[in-house]
Structures are given as C-alpha cells and as structure tokens.
Amino acid sequence: MSVKQAHPSGLYLLFATEMWERFSYYGNRALLALFMISALSFDKQFTSALYGKYTGLVYLTPLIGGYIADRYWGNCRSILVGGALMAAGQFTLFAAGSYYTHLPLALPLLYSGLALICLGNGFFKPNISTMVGQLYTPNDHRKDSAYTIFYMGINLGSFAAPLICGSLGDTGNPADFRWGFLAAGVGMLMSLLVFQIFKAKHLISPTGAPLGLPPKRLTAAEKNQVDVSLSTIDIQRMAVIGVLSFFVIFFWSAFEQAGVSLTFFARESTERVIFGFEVPASWFQSLNPVFVLIFAPIMARLWMSLSASGKEPSSPTKMAWGLIFLGLGYMVIAFGVKGIDDGMKVSMLWLVTMYWLHTMGELCLSPIGLSLVNKLAPARFASLLMAVWFLANAAANWFAGVLAGFYPEVGRPFPTFLGFTISNLHEFFMLFVAMSLLAGGLLLLASKPLQKMMHGVR
C-alpha cells in the first residue's frame, strides 16, 4: 500500500480507544444478567426488563452527548468526560457486587452504576464514531474501509471482554461477580489514558487542523451570515437515515438477545462440558466478535470485488440481507430445540452456528450503517444524526428486554405475544425468525427508492 493510500494515524488511536471502551462495556454486559439472577436473586422477567431499560438508555443518551459536543464542548472533551463517568459506573458496580448479600445497599449501588454508564456512554459513543469520518475528506474512498477497521477494534474489545471478565466473575460463586466489574472499570481507564496521551499528536484533520476542539463561538454578525437552510437533497438523505434507523430497530432487538435470553439458553439448555471443562455461559458472547474479526476482512474484499465489477449492492440492500441472515440464525436454533423436553440440553454447535449467521448479518448492516450516516448527514449535524442512529439502538435494546421477557420459564404462566402463546423455546425463537425475515423482506423491497433518495451516495 502506498503512503497516499495509508490511513491516518488518528484512526488507530480511535481504534485503541474504542477497543478498550468496548472491553469495558461488553465485560459488563457479559455478567450483568447473570449477576442479577445469581447474586441478587431477580427472576428472568424482571432481569430482562431492567436489562432492556439499561441498554436502551445507553443508546438514548447519545442524543444529549451529540448535542452538547456540537454546540459547546467538542468531541475530545465529550469523550473524556464520558469515559470518566463510565469508569465510575463500573467501579460502582464493583461495590454493588461486594455487598450483594445486603440488598438495601447493593440495589442503590447497582442502579447508580448503571446510570453513570448510561450517561457516560452518551458523551462517548456518538463523538468517537463521528471523529473517524472527520479524519478524511468527504469523498475519500478510504472512509468505508476506515469504518471497517474501526469496527474490528470494537470487536477485538468485545471478544476479549467476556473471556476475561467472565473468567473472573462467572465462576459459580456470586461473590466473584465484582472482580469482573472491576476488570471492566480498569479497561475503561485504559481507554481514557490512551486517548488523553495521544490525541493532540494524532487527531488531525486532512487540512492539518486539530480535531475535536470546542466549536467556534460566532458573533451576531457571523450568525446572520450562516446559511442554516437545508437543500432538498439534504432533506432526502436525512430521511433515508430515518427510514434505515427504523429497520435497524428490528435487527438489534433480536441481535441483542445475546446478553439476556441467549445467555439464559446457554446457561440452562446448552451442553457446555468439553473434555471435562464446563464452558462459562458468559463465554458464548465472545463468539460473535471473534467471527467478526475472522470474516470482516473477507466481507470487505467481497464488497471491493463486487464494486470493481459494478455489481456491489446498495447499502439498504446490504442491510436487508443483514436482517435475513439474522432470521436464518434464529431458524437454526429454533430447529435445534424443536421437540426437546424441559430440562434437556442441546449441543453447543446449534448456538455456535446461530452466532455465525448473526455475525454475517451484522457485517452486512452495522459497519455499513455507521459509514452511511457519516456520508448522508450534513456536516453541521454530523454528531446529532449519529446520535439519531444510536436512538434506533436505544429503542431496539429496550424492545430486546421486552422480548426477552417472553422467554419460557418453569413455574411461570406461559406468556403471550400479539395473541400467540409462547409455551416452549421453539416458539420463542420462531418469534425472532418471523420478525427478522419480515423486516428484511420489506427493506429489500424499499431498497431502490431509498437508493434514489441517497443521490449518488453508496
């Protein structure tokens, strides 16, 4: 690769910063539902609801963080404040884990820790994603591959987190959950340290100006000269972001079952013993990121090859296929549990295959979406529209908690969804098959009109 084609060094700084932050978040996610059930004795329905509200707020607060960054603080200050709040939240959860036998103390610490993580993520997440795009000129052909590299950093952190935090916390001893939360807090401190030390040297725009500074304060005369109007093309492109955001709600609400219902399934209904070693249920959450690390370069080459031959599908089409792959993954696991009795366990190969198909769907949707929002959003609304993208994730994560509450549980009346009774695991997983395939089919039909509204953006 020639020097001209090389990515700016700032990309690798953001890669490392995001990698450690995702280690912190996914280390927390790997343990949270198990901690609430095993240590705090919550039931599955309450755990699923609380998990959904928490992860929903994690993706809702970027609306606030994106606005404050665009208007007052700039990206860098927002990232540092957000990271500090998230580290404080993880250490608060460590304290909650230390007092798990004393609920009047553990519960306020649990809720406070989750609130700090939600607020901190609001400042951190939209701003670091936006800064990736700011390293390049608007029409730089390297931007798609930059987001793919950045996405691999996300998954490197989320691959290591369940293995390390899960090994420390998911031991069968409720007292050990705190050590997993402590490791997640240390990971967040590493993210802050890396960013603070290297940001001034490496976060440079294509023009040579430093990135992430607070926005310039305009005088009254300058404000009167600023053109705040939006062209028809701008409006249509923003509408595309809105439509695609709606469809990704269905993707992430099914995908994010990994932290709740699929963790319940791994723990209770999956044969996890290999050569005498019982694989912790939390470790299965590392399957998705390791598959991303393996297959992301393959998918990137596939898109490049199709582009060279003029056959590359549009971004909405790719995202539709992401939903279809997701539905196929749930079809596999639904087939695997069909007809089994309560208390029986199935081979872990069913879960592994499902996670592989989910990963292929994710690679069609998530990195494509991040890059597309950056391309479609007017520059002055970049952080805010990235936050709108994460707002869809907020709705999806809340909905994921609602859907996980339909997980069949012995001793509890069978739940109903839209008039249908869910009496076993096969019916539960078929709910996600139907939802994903229907949404994927509708988006496939809408792909050509959406492509026209993008006005040349791929």
Describe this structure in words.
With about 450 residues, the chain is an all-alpha fold. The chain has a single domain (about 5-205, about 230-455), classed as MFS general substrate transporter like domains (Growth Hormone, Chain: A). It is built from 15 helices and six strands. The chain has helices spanning about 10-40, 45-60, 60-75, 75-100, 105-135, 145-170, 175-200, 220-225, 230-255, 260-270, 285-310, 315-335, 350-375, 380-405, 425-455; strands spanning about 270, 275, 275-280, 345, 415, 420. Strands 1-4 form a two-stranded parallel ribbon. Strands 2-3 form a two-stranded antiparallel sheet. The protein has a two-stranded antiparallel sheet with strand order 5-6. Strand 2 and strand 3 form a beta hairpin. Helix 1 (about 10-40) runs antiparallel to helix 2 and helix 1 (about 10-40) packs antiparallel against helix 7 (about 175-200). The longest helix has about 30 residues, at about 105-135. It is globular. About 50% of the residues are buried. The model has no long low-confidence stretch (mean pLDDT about 90).
Produce the secondary structure layout:
Layout: H1 9-38, H2 44-60, H3 62-73, H4 75-98, H5 103-134, H6 143-169, H7 177-202, H8 220-225, H9 232-255, H10 261-269, E1 270-271, E2 273-274, E3 277-278, H11 287-308, H12 315-337, E4 346-347, H13 348-376, H14 382-404, E5 416-417, E6 420-421, H15 425-453
Parallel strand pairs: 1-4
Antiparallel strand pairs: 2-3, 5-6
Helix pairs in contact: 1-2, 1-4, 1-6, 1-7, 2-5, 2-14, 3-4, 3-5, 3-14, 4-5, 4-7, 5-14, 6-7, 6-11, 6-13, 9-12, 9-13, 9-14, 9-15, 11-13, 12-13, 12-15
